[in-house]
Amino acid sequence: MRKLKEVIFSITNRCNLRCRMCGIPDQPGEELETGLWKRAIDSAARLKAQTIVFSGGEPLLRKDLFTLIRHARSRGLNTCVTSNGSLIDATAAAELARAGIGVVNISLEGTEGTHDFLRGEGTFKKALAALDRLHEAGVETTVATMVCRYNYSDLPTVAELAAEHNAGTVRFQPFSRIFLKPESAGDEFFFSQEPEAGIMEKTLEILRDRGLCTNPKGYLEQITRYLTGEKTFLKKGCSALWTSACINAEGKLFPCWVLTKEKDVIGSIARQEFDRIWNSRRHEQARRAISATGCPGCMLSCYDEIFGPDKSGLTFARKARKLFTPTGWNKLLRVIRRVFFPVWSRLVFFRSYQGGWKKIARRLRNRFSRARIIGSEKPSDRAGIVFEQIVKLRQEIERLK
Fold first, then answer.
1. pLDDT per residue as tens digits for the range 30-49
2. How far from the centroid of its chain's Cα atoms is residue 56's Cα?
């Protein structure tokens, strides 16, 4: 049975930027209060989800974000925040670290000119500053890049910048119309002709050389085809219907981010517990219907695992790299304290009690030797040995009297 991996809470539609490729801030709707999000987090923990993703809009516009992160961590859930980075100063970075955030995704679209063209003047420097501040605070970061015809040739630069500013991962995702209203807009982001060859291969090479993780290679190979109109991406077999939960700012649960019309709503966490909605008959019926007819298809990076595993070794490189971050060292030290120190303290105690390491070694050797002798004897022989030991012990007691 497929297990729920992540729950994506789009906790607000509000945003302090107006990016060319995103219409989320223009979407109407109320936001749930803190208590309802906490209740949904409790439900996610009961469902044994792995990660809570706080998204938006810009999630840092919610003053209770740090409270929600702490609540998720107290329930044993991993946490992630997706941000444009413009609101992450040293104070916010430190607060995210104190709250126990697992990773922060920072949007970075290319060179300064490209990034500011897509997201607004001055946002490039703020994004890089956010990566630096989070690194200084000991928070793991991911660079999230929306790929389109405007920034395709900048992808190698994105990889270099991610490495220079200590990100552990780079996640690419092609432009999607689903974040625009009307959804018929967005032709400008697709290629009108074949893009420059070798860009993705060069980007992957840089990521591999710098030890950064990224999407599966099969997924990255599909991005160019998708942006040129070749819809060769998968339409069936997507596991996201079972492994990922999508909840918008109003608390409505959808089958996935592609199917977010009113008719697609499974339920609302404002009126019912999230785990009940997730396990409801209506939800199962929706899954079966979508699986039978085939979904509209998408290239959202949160579902990139359906394109195959990462065989490039970048995942291992990323995990190894984590040990050399402040957070990684802290985790390693916690393991040492929990496992090694109790054993070491006991050995030190026995050393002081027995009078030296050599005596401890000799005592252990003798004990293992006796165990081997006793284990090799027949039951009747072992009984004789024990009887002789008892006799000697009684003689010793009599002598001491």
1. 899 999 999 999 999 999 99
2. 17
